Amino acid sequence: MLQSKLRGIASGISNLFKKAIDKAVSFSVAFPWIILIFFAALTIFFGTKTTSLKFETDIDNLATKSASEIKEIELAARDFSIWEPLYLVLVGDTRTLETWQRIALTTANLRKVENVARALSPLDSTYMTLQGFSVKSLPVTSATPSNEEELKVFRNNLSMSFDSRFSVSPSEDAVVVRLYIRGGLGSRGKKAIDEIQKILQDEWGEGGYYLTGEFFLGYSVDKTVVADVITLFPLAIAIVFLVTILSFRSIAGVLAPTITVLSTVVVTLGFMATLGKPLTIISAVLPVLLIAMSSADSIHIFSRYREEISRGSQKRQAITQSINSLVLPVVMTSLTTAAGFGSLVFSSIIPMKELGYFSVFGIIYAMLFSLLAVPALLSLLPAPRVDIASSRSVEEPFMDKLLYRFSMAVAEKRRIVLLISIAVALVCVVGITNVQFESNLSRYFRKGSAVSMGVINFEERFGGSSLLIIAVDSGKEGGVMTVDFMKALGEMEKVLDSFDILSRTSSFYSLVGSIYPGELNQGQITLIKSGIGSSGVQGYISKDSSKAAIHTYIRNTSTREISRTLVRVEKELRKFLPAGATLTLTGTPRVIQLHMESFSQSQAVSLLFSAIIVWLIVSLMFLSIFIGSIAMLPLLFTIVFSLGIMGLTGIPLDAATVLVASISVGVGIDYSIHFIERVKSELKLGNSLERASNKASRTAGRAILINAVTLISGFSILAFSNFLTVSAFGILMTFTMATSSVAALVIIPAILNSRRLSDKILKALLRTDAKEKGSKIPF
């Protein structure tokens, strides 16, 4: 009884909605210029806003769930006045006078660059020495060595410097210059880095220098995001244009999806800019994603319009009939696609949430444009001549023949088709268990890029490139300046040195040991701190001497390995923690670990939510849980297939590829809806279920394939991205879209042609018509 009432309510709402859309479409066909001028004005208005669109590259601003932890990390690091520099590796034989003179000249020129606050080379290092009962900090040289004797003295002093192991490579073939830039990653900071690179290219040439560090990583992300948007956006537009030309060979067939795409992208990006939301490494794929997604509805509408014209309908009648037959599928597919992307709003990753919001906005806008502006546009353009000709006993198009034969083969070999599908799914399930998460931005770049080469050359010569700080809080002022606390720091250094991916570990304990190699006592600690002053220990000891920091550098590796190492590090260090003291891991490696946890948790929630919502929408559309479940099968197969391929090929879930499953949910169900709805329409005309399925394969199947080719073409453009992760995302999406469309054209017909289920399927699909006629058909 309750089910019957719910079906009645749903049917009533559906009829009211269709009537409203019918009136809106009638208005757009009767007054096309009013509709087109309205959407044109909207597009122009938001187009002017896109110029203020900004870019965000700070990885600390990625996660909401880990925001409190990141704040704790920042506060812990702030006690030690650590300012992350831009690291410059200069390659040259450090045993020669010429190399040091070149280093001195370059450093001097870099200091002249506007907004370079400091440039520190090994020539600016100091070393500590005992003079009586005091410790003095002396410069390694008062001027650039000008002869071999001065070079010898300088190298000897440098060898006594605590900083020498961080600034000169053990093989003596490179040095590190630390550059401190004002303005961060704003326009001032980026302009400074551009000028720095010009100087380095002129003075050291290709392969003579490398830039690295978190600052350079952020700069490179910013530059790459902008380059990708500028390059890939027009390419994707061109691809959609080309695919529609080849598919429809009609002015209307080309303009309808192309104008839909342009308006959707411009309005969505303009809306983002109006709200002050930036593009990030994650949402940078939004323009190309919208190009691929927003063309779907207009392609299905034009394909049906072309079919109606081929039957001899007049243009206006063909437009009305097309919209009437497709309004429900278009709305429902848009809602299910929006649900797929909408699931991203539950992500703990801020840019992922924002991508979800604006993807939903773009998809709904594209739906409205397709239902209102496309009919208006078609009413002004000439009807496709090729399709009119096809009504006069012209040979059936090759694609239609192919689809017919394909559908017959699927119906005949349905058991084999289903068994193969199940076998492939089981193999992919095994692959899913191997899926890994990746949030280390430096691994998002291609091999051979400036970021990749900088990290490789730095780590080959100096060890790890990402600073990890272990902040140890004694809980009381002056608490770290004791022998017992210092010895505890020493034991912790030994623990860190035992990890393969950690290197260059240091603390105040090792600083003291570089002056007093013997047994440590309280007098030495007090003497050194007073001798070198607060500036000499600011990286290791807080101002009130209540906290101490241990510095270590972690090698660029996978997020999983970083996360596992940090868990083990924290566990082992706590064994040597003094009584009453607390320990906090800070720095980019810790942020990466937090983001990995956010990725894994948010992905599971997003997938589950979107799948449930989509299933409910489809079940409501067809007024049948059974049909809704059948429609979900190609979608579920696609999700399992895409995640399984990632696990089997070693492609990780990261800032871009994490979107694959959500997009699969949103798009994969669309093909099922269009196919089943066409089967339902053919059943109304009195066709058998088998014949209706075959007819759907030739009609809806054609539109599905054209839509799939458009999506594949659009997403394939991302394979040319400068980001390795975005490139992998583009390749994955081409396979996913191909799998999704083929699955809909294989799995659903195989099930519909099943003799055991045919009666139940017929009853479920014809229930709405029966209710309208007053007949009673059981669930």
**Sheet of most strands:** 4 strands, antiparallel
Our count of domains comes out at 4
Query: What is the general shape?
Result: elongated
**Number of helical regions:** 29
Number of strands: 10
Structural class: alpha+beta
Superfamily (CATH H level) name of the largest domain: Multidrug efflux transporter AcrB transmembrane domain
Stretches where pLDDT falls below 50 for ≥5 residues?
386-394, 770-779
Q: Widest sheet: strand order?
A: 2-5-1-6
Task: Note the beta-strand portion.
Answer: 5-15%
What is the alpha-carbon Rg in Å?
33 Å
Beginning-to-end CA distance, first to last residue: 11 Å
The CATH class name of the largest domain reads Mainly Alpha
Helix content: 55-70%
CATH-derived architecture of the largest domain? Up-down Bundle
* Average residue pLDDT: 80
Briefly note the CATH topology name of the largest domain.
Multidrug efflux transporter AcrB transmembrane fold
